[in-house]
Amino acid sequence: MTRYLVTPAAGFIGSHFVRDLLGPAGPPAVEVTVLDALTYAGDPTGLAPVLGDPRLRFVQGDITDAALVDRSKEAPVRPDSLVLDRGAPGAVHNVVGGTRLTNRELTGLLLHACGAGWDAVRPVEDRKGHDRRYGVDDSKPRRLGHRARVPFEQGLAETVDRYRRLIEHPARRK
């Protein structure tokens, strides 16, 4: 049995990671404990698809609470993870699927996802060494076995929607 302690787990990356672990493409025989304080960045709706899974245990709390973390580790789950095992410390893993877009194309996709028009864009002078196109290197996550599961445009729209909901989260209004 592989056991994971994921914290924070109700944010954008954590919730995707937990859903992947418990999903059909996840490792066999897995148990997951998630620990999250559910602050402005935490949104448990990201975990909704797996909240009823018997292999998942949700703990609301702060990772700075050492006693709570110890109890979470002593529960049936301890913190070991493919990410920790396979990822390089301090490395950036760009998970964009190798999508190549011009700056204008990407701006158009973002505007569309935000429900805004080109009138929201404020042109600026080109800077020295201006890049007209970005090709983000996704070789590191591919070496770890990552494959894009949705088209770039869909993932971008879902990311924008996620941040829109975070901005509207009640904890942010305090």
From TrEMBL:
Q: Which residues form the NAD-dependent epimerase/dehydratase domain?
A: 5-85
Task: Offer one Pfam family short name for this entry.
Answer: Epimerase
The record's annotation in Gene3D superfamilies points to:
NAD(P)-binding Rossmann-like Domain (3.40.50.720)
> Which family does this protein fall into?
Belongs to the NAD(P)-dependent epimerase/dehydratase family.
UniProt name for this protein: GDP-mannose 4,6 dehydratase
Q: Give the originating organism.
A: Streptomyces puniciscabiei
